[in-house]
Amino acid sequence: MIVKVVEISKTSYSDSDAMLAIRIINSLFEHLPGKIDNYLPHLLKIAVQEMDREDMTNHYILILSKCFFYSFYYNAGLTFQTLSELNALQSVMELCFGKPEMYKTTEDVNVVIFGTISIFKVNSNDIPQEFKSSMKQIVQLVVMFLGKYSELKNKNEDDAEGEDEEEEYKDIDDYDSEPDEMFDEEYLFGDSELNLYNSQLEKQESPQYFQNAMPEFQNSNPDVYSSLMELIPQ
């Protein structure tokens, strides 16, 4: 089904259909850990082929890059193996880490951190040279993203407090409104739609998860661990 969606989208004027397919792949990697190993190579092949699409929107590039982070989160070793077979290691590394400014939300940054943690957990001898040669830059980026996540989280909490205050006044203003104005279908649909796309990773605090994973880095990637210890404030 996913392949058909992508193929159909190639004949359309937009990448919206293909974007839907990639979102489905992202969700599979996130929500089915250890259950789709046999399908991962096929799903990654779809994502790699989509990298050759012309005139991609910036939003689609973001969704596509997150697909590979989700795949690393699912199984970094198998992802490296598959990307090597597809001759896509360098292009994926550049897509994921080449434009860090495109990750602007807590959800974006969370996915990047979790995917990178999984990369660090891979034994250094099994990390492909395309990634190993850029590991110092990747370490610097993930430390930057840890700080950015905290900044975004604090900003979101401040914004939420402001919205709560506005809602209190809005509720008073709407008290005498007709029921169909206060509880219209558009509002109810928006709430249910939000629940449908509830991210499992968003429920976890990536900085804390990162801190808990540090001892594993010491064993799997001593050089990465040393670099992190130098960059992260104690």
Total tally of structural domains: 1
Largest sheet: none
Radius of gyration (Å): 20 Å
- Name the overall outline: globular
- The SSE string, one letter per element, is HHHHHHHHHHHH
Mean pLDDT: 81
Number of strands: 0
The percentage of residues in β strands lies in under 5%
Structural class: mainly alpha
| Low-pLDDT residue spans | 175-197
Number of helices: 12
Calculate the terminal CA-CA distance, rounded to whole Å. 49 Å
The helix content is: over 70%
Write a structural description.
- The chain is mainly α and 234 residues long.
- It has one domain.
- Helix content is 74%, strand content 0%.
- The chain has twelve helices and no strands.
- It has helices at residues 2-9, 16-31, 40-50, 58-85, 89-97, 106-121, 129-132, 135-173, 179-182, 185-196, 206-220, 222-231.
- Helix 1 packs antiparallel against helix 2 (16-31) and helix 6 (106-121) packs parallel to helix 11 (206-220).
- The longest helix is centred in the middle third of the chain and has 39 residues, at 135-173.
How would you concisely characterize the structure shown here?
The protein has helices at 2-9, 16-31, 40-50, 58-85, 89-97, 106-121, 129-132, 135-173, 179-182, 185-196, 206-220, 222-231. By secondary structure, the chain is an all-alpha fold.
Ordered list of secondary-structure elements with their pairings:
Elements: H1 2-9, H2 16-31, H3 40-50, H4 58-85, H5 89-97, H6 106-121, H7 129-132, H8 135-173, H9 179-182, H10 185-196, H11 206-220, H12 222-231
Helix pairs in contact: 1-2, 2-3, 2-4, 3-4, 4-5, 4-6, 6-8, 6-11, 8-12, 11-12
